[in-house]
Amino acid sequence: MENLQEFITQYGYIAIFLLLSLGIIGLPIPDEVLMTFVGYLCSRGVLLYSVAVLVAFLGAMFGMSFSYFVGKKLGKPLLWKYGKWLKLTPKRLAKVEGWFQKYGIWTVVFGYYVPGVRHLTCYLAGVTGIETRKYLLFAGFGAIIWCTVFITVGYYIGTIDFMKAR
Q1: Can you tell me the distance from the alpha carbon of 79 to that of 92, in angstroms, rounded to the nearest whole number?
Q2: How big, in percent rounded to 5, are the helix, strand and coil portions of the chain?
Q3: Which of 97, 98, 123, 126 is most buried, judging by how many CB atoms fall within 10 Å of its CB?
Q4: Rounded CA gap, 160 and 34, in Å?
Q5: Is residue 5 packed enough to be buried (19+ CB in 10 Å), middle (13-18) or exposed (0-12)?
Q6: What's this model's pTM, rounded to 2 decimal places?
Q7: d(Cα 4, Cα 40) in Å, to the nearest integer?
Q8: Which residues form the domain of 146?
Q9: Residue whose C-alpha is closest to residue 147's, from 69, 45, 34
Q10: Is 44 within 8 Å of 163 (Cβ atoms)?
Q11: Cα–Cα separations (whole angstroms), residue 59 to 94, 127, 159
């Protein structure tokens, strides 16, 4: 975690974009912790809140779009073959497929809040052939809410900590 903190502190918005993109694609990056730390840095004046939310949103959308197009072009066989390297297990895959069957595209919006599932929803949206424009609309809606919530929580944690220090 210290390495992530140093990376964000040193490279700022570029680090946020890269880490969030890679985390959404499926690399083991603690996205919620990352966004909360970004909010904390905003409360300290290291980052600007509105720019951090925008960059986080763009990073999330890049990662989600990449995952969607991989799913759309390469399909489920890729997930079965290489998913284990990204912790995309058959059990998680089956769980998310069930959610898609039950809740449809809303799975993309609410999948953000379930660690390990957020990564699969993007791939499966592509695999299942959801229309690109519809996917981007729902993914964008979920991404802006998710980024704003976690960055705001981190921001308020930072202000509480700051008030105690006085």
Answers
A1: 11
A2: 85, 0, 15
A3: 123
A4: 19
A5: middle
A6: 0.83
A7: 14
A8: 2-165
A9: 34
A10: no
A11: 27, 22, 25
Query: Position 42: which residue type?
Result: C
Secondary structure letter of residue 126 according to DSSP: H
Burial class from Cβ neighbours inside 10 Å (0-12, 13-18, 19+) for residue 2 reads: exposed
Q: Which residues contact 9 (CB under 8 A, 6 or more apart)?
A: 41, 46
Total domains, the chain: 1
Structure tokens at 25: 């694609």
Residue-level pLDDT at 86:
62
Tens of pLDDT, residue by residue, the chain (166 residues): 577 778 888 899 999 999 999 988 888 788 888 999 999 999 999 999 999 999 999 999 999 999 999 988 887 777 777 766 666 677 777 777 777 778 878 888 887 777 767 777 888 888 888 899 999 999 999 999 999 999 999 999 988 855 555 5
User: So what's the pLDDT on residue 110?
Assistant: 83
